[in-house]
Amino acid sequence: MREEGHDDGHDDGHVDGHDDEYDDGDDPDGYFGEAVAAGYDDTSADMFSPEAVEPVVELIAGLAGERGDARVLEFGVGTGRIALPLARRGVPVHGIDMSRAMVERMRAKPGGADIGVTIGDFATTRVDGPGFTVAYLVFNTINNLTSQDAQVDCFRNAAAHLVPGGCFVIEVGVPDLRRLPPGQDAVPFRVEPTRLGFDTYDVATQGMRSHHMMVVDGRPVYWSIPFRYVWPAELDLMARLAGMRLRERWAGWNGEPFTNDSTKHVSVWEKV
User: Fold this and answer.
1) What value does the CA radius of gyration of the chain take, rounded to a whole number of Å?
2) For the residues 47-62, what does the mean pLDDT come to?
3) For the whole prediction, is pTM greater than 0.70?
4) What Cα–Cα distance (Å) separates residue 82 from each residue in 18, 88, 203?
5) Span 135-157, pLDDT tens digits
6) Helical packing angle, 148-161 and 232-241, nearest 10°
7) Is 5's pLDDT higher than 80?
């Protein structure tokens, strides 16, 4: 799916008010059902700003524009944060998403009904028709696949959809384990009077879970969502297994150099 949330891009998850510590995501829409979809654009408002959206659209449109038969595929299209402005640029977009509730929000927006969407798990769901020039997966969404096998399947699925020379683009955070001292498995990311958030880590499995607590209408609400964090070199190996090779890696959408201190990366792999 996709991630909303604090500055490191962790997901604000399933806002359902359950008291159970771990919501198991039995909703057919996954962790992004109606409860999340109803307020997703508001809770992720910063990510919908022109400053956040325009560099993404510019880069993906530029990659697509390298070929005359541009056609792009978004894994986790959601409410159309990137797909809609790409379509307005004249770039044909198709999306895959398992959350009907999120897609319905996109459909209600101007131009949303014109974007083709296939409902399903983007790690395995196939879209019929000619190949795509670019497939992309932004806002840490690769981490919503909570096993290494599923992440490998995602790369293979992207490669299967791409034409030779086509590109797969991922935006994802660098695992923030520097902030995790020995013997500790929790790191806070938000401490406010009406909102608290922290991540818990299982470093043996690369599992993590973001926990959120906030006050809504005077009552406490808790929700959480699981992830699997993944390292840049691990993603490069997944790409090789899928018949792709690394073409570019930056620290952000404006082409900032990727360094030891980068907190995220935008990587582009090319199908060989």
Assistant:
1) 18
2) 96
3) yes
4) 31, 10, 32
5) 999 999 999 999 999 999 999 99
6) 50
7) no
pLDDT at 25: 52
Q: What's the CA gap between 189 and 212, in Å, rounded?
A: 10
Place of tokens 């670019």: 134
Two structure tokens written together for 35:
């409860």
Type of residue at 147: S
In the chain, the percentage of residues whose pLDDT exceeds 70 is 90
**Is residue 13's pLDDT more than 70?**
no
Distance of alpha carbon 16 from alpha carbon 70, whole angstroms: 40
Strand partners, 223: 212
Predicted local confidence at residue 23, as pLDDT:
40
The structure tokens listed for 271 are 């199908």
Query: DSSP letters of the chain?
Result: -----STT-------S---SSS----STTTTSSHHHHTTHHHHTGGGGSHHHHHHHHHHHHHHHTTSTT--EEEET-TT-TTHHHHHHTT--EEEEES-HHHHHHHHTSTTGGGSEEEES-TTT----SSPEEEEEE-TTGGGGS-SHHHHHHHHHHHHHHEEEEEEEEEEEEPP-GGG--TT--EEEEEEETTEEEEEEEETTTTEEEEEEEEEETTEEEEEEEEEE---HHHHHHHHHHTTEEEEEEESSTT-PBP-TT-SEEEEEEEE-
pLDDT band at 12 (very low <50, low <70, confident <90, very high): very low
What is the rounded distance in angstroms from the CA atom of residue 211 to the CA atom of residue 199? 6
CA angle, 248 then 250 then 256, to 5°:
135
pLDDT value for 223: 86
Whether residue 253 contacts residue 59, with contact meaning beta carbons closer than 8 Å, is answered with yes
